[in-house]
Amino acid sequence: MRVLDLSKGRAGAYCTRLLAAVGAQIVVGEPRGGSALRKEGRVGDTEVSVVWEYLQAFKDGTELDPGDSIVDLAGGYEVVVLDVEGDAGSVTSLIDELKAVYPALVVVVISPYGLLGPKADRMAGPLEDWALGGLMTLNGERDREPLPGGGAWATHLVGATAAIGAQAAMVNVRATGSGDLVDVTAEQALINCHQWTFTILSHNGIVKQRSGNRHGEQHHPLSIHPCSDGWVCLAAVSRHQWEGLCIAMDQVELLADETLYVPAVRFDRADELDVVINGWTQTRTVEDVVRILQEHQTPVGPVASLFDTLAEAQLEVRNYWAAADHLGPSVKMPGLPFVIPGAAPEFRPAPSLTKSSVSATASSAIRRKEKSLGSSLPLSGVRVIEFSIAWAGPLVCRFLGDLGADVIKIEHPTARGLSMPDPALIESEAGDWEWGQLPGPLSRNGVFMNNKAGPDWFNRLGHWNKMNRSKRSLCFDVKGAGGQEVLEALVTSADLVVNNYSPRGVRSLGIGHESLRAIKPDLVTADLSGYGATGPEAHRISWGPVLDAASGLASSTGYSDSGPYKQGLALPDAIGGIHGTVAVLGALWQRWLTGEAVHVDMSQLETAVAVGGDQLLEVSLTGRQPPRRGARSADHAPAGVYRAAGDDDWLVLSVHTEAAWSGLVSVIGSDLDRDEWKSRDGRMEHHDQIDAVIEGWTTGRSKHDAVSELQQVGVRSAAVMTSRDLYEDPQLVEQGFFVDLDLSGEEEQIFPGFPIEFENTPVHLRRAPRLGEHNEEVLLDLGFTIDQISTLEAAGVLADEPPG
What we know:
Blueprint: E1 2-5, H1 10-21, E2 25-30, H2 50-55, E3 60-63, H3 70-73, E4 79-83, H4 92-101, E5 106-111, H5 126-132, H6 153-176, E6 180-185, H7 186-191, H8 197-204, E7 222-227, E8 230-235, H9 239-248, H10 263-268, H11 270-281, H12 286-295, E9 300-302, H13 306-310, H14 313-317, E10 321-323, E11 332-334, E12 383-387, H15 392-402, E13 406-411, H16 423-429, H17 441-444, H18 462-467, E14 472-475, H19 483-493, E15 496-499, H20 503-509, H21 513-519, E16 524-529, H22 544-550, H23 553-556, H24 571-594, E17 598-603, H25 604-611, H26 613-622, E18 639-643, E19 650-654, H27 658-668, H28 680-685, H29 687-698, H30 703-712, E20 716-719, H31 723-727, H32 730-735, E21 738-740, E22 750-752, E23 757-758, H33 775-781, H34 786-794
Helix pairs in contact: 1-6, 6-24, 15-24, 24-25
């Protein structure tokens, strides 16, 4: 697959970096004089840009002449990647012409809000991406301004989502011969990165808020704690992990309080518990806390600096780093976030600014008939067996199911609601609940519609139903009598087996790729564990916030006067799920090309490191860890988050050009029009004074009105959107993004939809399955008889409700 990347920003560059990782040949077309990305992230007074070097590695490039015809250049390419900011209509005629000349071409367009709708012409950069998709409102302290993440990670996730769109459209091209327009918006892509934010709004009427370094509403401790020489992130979510933590701290008396076995009760009592936890961690080093808690099987890890991440033994042993020798003999750059055997490219530096031919004949490999899918949905005919829990693995398989794959989710009879108390207690607690009121701690983790658990509470888990739509449920005990026969029949029928268990869990179930390949030699398998299937830390159990800390992301996030901050949601789970989707689609493509088995061993830690790759490269080059800056930029000023009229209402803006500064002065007035502020350096020096003037203006306006005024004069800006803001956003309403996926015969249940708009490639979203809903259907299809199925049911191997 040959891809012409004509995008100007980070999202397009990250998109094509991932497409290079799955084997595509990428050519970057730059305007005369070079891409604007070459000017971002420059090291000192040099011309070296860590942004350019990182995002454009593994690619070829060429300098374009002003008179070059994009339509002519696109000849010989299967995919063209564009982006647009501030004038969506500017690419419309180009798209129409490309589609007319090349009917099988896939055109990917990345924008803040989409090509149509009331916000189509708005501008946004990396800071605004954090705000417009609802991520930023969850970060930081409740009594301070919200925080963006410490890098352009949200923008990179938009690019990763665009890579999925390009892959899905290309699969559709192979089936139908028809090209596509793939419209990827930052707003939709980043809403897709939320955990239960929108579920507690649509099911309980709750607007999720930021909780500092705690994991809001549902779990504690899943949080950052101080040690004598740094910080750790620990996760005591399950009953077993809570017990391990209490025993490790020699606080066994806490175990006598049965209510503390409920994770949300611990969150409600977090102030009390943190006195105990912090009292223990603060008297010990990071190394001691990690060692002791690991011995007690409680997930924990250091809050790593970027230096620590560069020295991480797990990454070294797994050969994760690319040796960027052209930048220095010891410089490290994050390599590929996953490796597809047979498709992974050799490292080569980002292209220099040269004039070369970018038009070429399509490769012969792409013209081969790899696989006839023969149906309207791109992945119809592909069977996926899913062994996964939590978030990252289910997100991968949800993407595949929405695209038409037959995803069979394997569930153990006890898998749903392991931390849920007795349903009778839940019902009694919910008696005086009112819409918009945070449910009590017994029912809160279930996120039940209207806070009603009901006798089949295990089918009404809102967070589970959000993550597991478009799948079938087969509930059976792999280790039970007859379970292996079921497993072998499933694997024999499958194209792909996905798991996100720890390597120990994989071995315990007998679903390692070698075992599965013995059953079906040409199978595609994907392990999506926290640390990878190999290396000294492969055995570690991970949770998203622990990986947030281990990757260096948390150490980069925070106020200028604070310590590190985790993200307000388990962002590494979303990172792992989106990258995992790119990886498994690439692995399927490779299998269709070669007919041979493909195995992907993906580390969620490595994908988290990948989204911050330019920052790690900067530290490796300079030997300096950048300071935490809050919402400020190292490259331009002003950039920040500002209070607006209303309770906890905020907006962000960033001035990245002199024209934008003139626009800001014109809308705010003469208080900003000072000679010493007319240069970038002057604005950087006087940032505090400028911020005070800006906030004097914003506090008298609603965040939406202020942003509208700023956009009209060419200033990148965005309201810090809450879940309710997004649910009511006219742009998303016009796009029909939120969808009703109710359980049969029940009230509507609104969830975010598919985060990519296709012109031709169809998707189909179906409600999540009830536990074991498809047991008989799946087993009959596999050749089992009714009598055999009845025997499995009688033995307790098959189930459609939890035991007891």
